[in-house]
Each structure stands twice: as C-alpha cells, then as structure tokens.
Amino acid sequence: MMEIKVAGPGCAKCKQLEDLVNEVVAEMGMDAQVSKITDFSEIVQTGIMTTPGMIVNGKVKVSGKVPTKAEITQILTTEAAQ
Question: What is the pLDDT of residues 28-44, one digit of tens each?
Fold first, then answer.
C-alpha cells in the first residue's frame, strides 16, 4: 500500500492539494492511504520548509506549490512502479 501524506497547516492551497491527491488516487484505483500533517514541527521534520507539500512513501515529492492533477498522476505512477 502506498502511503501519501499532505503537509500543511490547513490553508486553502493545502486543502486543494489534499483534494487533488484524493481525486487522483480514486481515479487510478490505487491502494493508498492518504493522511494529513498539520503540526508545524512535524512538517519541518519531514524536510518541507514551504507548504503545501506531498510525501509519498517517506520521500518528499512536492514542496511549496500545488501540482497539477497530471503532475500528481505522474508522481504516483512513477512511485507505484518502483
């Protein structure tokens, strides 16, 4: 199972990223657990300095921006193939 974490304090862009990730996971029919990290000290420990961020299987894949749906699909497809 793929583990996806969306990091952000709850701002509009963080919510947008979380919604996009959930959409892509559902559309791809992936076996993935999507969770949220909102605690600032926990976010910093991941290495993300600018939110929103996305961590897939323990690796920071996005930091400081909301990727497009196509970019999220590409990231998750690449990660699933590994």
Answer: 999 999 999 999 999 99
Please give the torsion angle defined by the CA atoms of residues 28, 30, 36 and 37, in that order, rounded to the nearest 10 degrees: -110
Residue 82 pLDDT greater than 90, yes or no: no
Which residues are identified as catalytic? 11, 14
Give the domain extent around 14: 2-81
| Domains in the chain, number | 1
Q: What does the alpha-carbon distance between residue 16 and residue 5 come to, in Å, rounded to a whole number?
A: 14
Tell me, what CATH number does 44's domain have?
A: 3.40.30.10
* Nearest-angstrom CA–CA distance, 58 and 71: 18
Whether this model's pTM surpasses 0.90: yes
| Contact present, 70 and 24 (Cβ < 8 Å) | no
CA 66/CA 15 separation, integer angstroms? 10
